[in-house]
């Protein structure tokens, strides 16, 4: 990575220069600018702005800076983070700019430099964290949490009335979620059959990792129910059919089996881990 330089104010889009054509190798990196912010620690979630530069001619392939769409999926975790990334990220400071080499053994067939600038850090949540809400209406479904935070649900005699319910169960102290953001969440979802028996149709807890959803691309009940909630919160959603999947059966793409019958009211317990 010799000869690669970056100039500009820390935390702003850098001007990156290098001699072309440049030969790069995977898992090579160089710190181009030292940051001046908080120190990055184990368990932090990072947001980074990035530029991809063609190693052959230096042209810009991609940039997140112009539309302000940072990648906030980076978590500094020794057991799950790519070793090369982990070793270089931990201990750096916010506003540090780092170049990573990506060789041409990739789907694009183009060797490039990925230049990341770490613009923020926050504690990475694995479950909802905040203050338990005490004034929950008694007629709502009851949520019970396992020791690891995985929820179970009891209808508690609840009869849906066709209206969206978005009941905060745990109030997080993070920023409010915006309708245009992507949410990182742990969640479980159920529907009730005609006998009032709950059937779980999906759960990130069962897969062992959280999931990311753009609120502009999910069912209306998720968008309406989660917008304005705060990061760290746990929310019970009761979603009527007209804000869910309506009159269309949802089926397994492999087996064709119906996973959510048409006109189902949906029940979700959602832990909001982050939004970006």
Automatic annotation (TrEMBL):
Its EC number is 5.2.1.8. This is Peptidyl-prolyl cis-trans isomerase. Residues 180-276 form the PPIase FKBP-type domain. It catalyses: [protein]-peptidylproline (omega=180) = [protein]-peptidylproline (omega=0). Belongs to the FKBP-type PPIase family. It comes from Bifidobacterium thermophilum. The keyword Isomerase applies. Signal peptide: none annotated.
